[in-house]
Amino acid sequence: HLQKKRRAATARRQHLKSAMLQLAVTEIEREAAAKEVEKQNYLAEHCPPLSLPGSMQELQDLCKKLHAKIESVDEERYDTEVKLQKTTKELEDLSQKLFDLRGKFKRPPLRRVRMSADAMLRALLGSKHKVCMDLRANLKQVKKEDTEKEKDLRDVGDWRKNIEEKSGMEGRKKMFEAGE
Predict the structure, then answer these.
(1) Where, if anywhere, are coiled coils annotated (predicted)?
(2) Which member of 19, 44, 132, 138 has the lowest number of beta carbons within 10 Å of its beta carbon?
């Protein structure tokens, strides 16, 4: 019984899907025909049939008129393109503002890259980068000063002698009293 219901539901779904596709195809065909009719109407309105005059002067006048018409249409096209670019830019700005207001900025996953300073400068500056940066070249030389610890180590001398003195409880007591 359950199998029959499933088959019926699947068949109904497939039938509805095919009916929807059929409707969509007819709608697309209807829209294409309407666009074609609209195009023909526009061309008939804006582009009257061309009648070529017989004399040379009339032909030159016709060419001048056509040239003026072409220029005006070209200006219109340019103005519309500029308006379109302006509108597109405004749309992008507004969508960016909307995106910022939502605050759902997803950071792209970043990879760690090990680069030397030279490679980094070369990547940033491109062919302008000619100087090699040796980071250790500009470091200041520091003399090692004798610290008290080192003096103490030199004064101690052989470590085996001190071991016997500091071994056992007496040695610990001496170390504690000396504050070492």
Answers:
(1) 25-104
(2) 138
Say if residues 172 and 166 touch (Cβ distance below 8 Å): yes
Sign of CA dihedral 35, 45, 48, 79: negative
Q: How far apart, in whole angstroms, are the C-alpha atoms of residue 32 and residue 21?
A: 17
Contact criterion met (CB below 8 Å) for 115 and 123: yes
Q: Is 114 helix (H, G, I), strand (E, B) or coil?
A: coil
Residue identified by tokens 């804006």 is 46
15 within 8 A of 24, measured Cβ to Cβ: no
- Report how far residue 174's alpha carbon sits from residue 165's, in angstroms, rounded to the nearest whole number: 9
Q: What integer pLDDT is reported at residue 48 of this predicted model? A: 76
Note whether 101 and 60 are same-domain residues. Answer: yes
pTM for this predicted structure: 0.33
